[in-house]
Sequence to fold (342 residues):
Amino acid sequence: MRVLVTGGAGFIGSHVVDALVAGGHAVRVFDVRASDGPPREGVELVHGDVRDGGAVETALHGVDAVCHQAAMVGLGVDIDDIADYVSHNDLGTAVLLRSLARRGFCGRVVQASSMVVYGEGRYVCRTHGHVSPRPRSAEALAAGEFDPPCPACGARLEAAAVSEDAPPDPRNVYAATKVHQEHLAAAFVRETGAPVTSLRYHNVYGPRMPRDTPYAGVASIFLSELAAGRAPRVFEDGAQRRDFVHVRDVARANVLALEADEPRIAAYNIASGRPRTVGDMASALHAAVGSAAPEPQVTGEFRLGDVRHIFASAEAARRELDFVAREDFAEGMAELTASPPQ
Fold:
């Protein structure tokens, strides 16, 4: 199978390319960063912007499947970034889908989505069942009240794994563009019948991770502090729960979606299925660096707009894609210290 990987020179995309080549597939990388570097067996490099319809048309020639990873990542600085995010992520996806439709493409498309579509994770009130908490206030956070209360009765909530049926609740511009990418893909499927699988990546980490990644940027911050001989500062109480999933597992999920016996027209959480706290990550990185490094310090500081808990149910991906994360967390953290984010 010849697979076009948009964004194939990026963090996750480059690992998807590795996994496809290892599986015996021919790969065409389409990326604004692709260059005339040293040739690699089974990989063709094509320089281009996914928003350029002519370049996309050329890149699609002769491909059997598409793995769409190209996106502007990061959470943005302020609302001034909104047009850039919409242009790169939503317009770029629209141009790609339009080109596929014009070609009568009927192969598989796998699209990178994100955990950020959910906003806060899933919460349960003993009285009111599943509820959606309001954004946490500065006053509550300053008072050390980090867990959001039930919006109906104010009682303490229990965090639960979020599954794919949770309604979207994007809380920043990047998140809004990822929701829209999924909606565009759904419209494409209805109009053309070609299958699109959306993979909602959770907190991805691993080699080649950039400093501005929206998934596990806290790891970059902690590693920078440790390298400078300073204690990593863990915000809130360090008990914020996330699902940290290794980039090689994410790449394998893409290949499984492309190779599944039947195409899957659905969205899937791609996660380890084992929630860990931000404090756990800080401790694992400290252990990997060595005991001579300063120990992480829980500071009680906070950032408005941060979510408290977001971790996943990975059951649907296990059941329908045969995906189960394999990479060990402690070993992955140690690997990350050996190849810190750039």
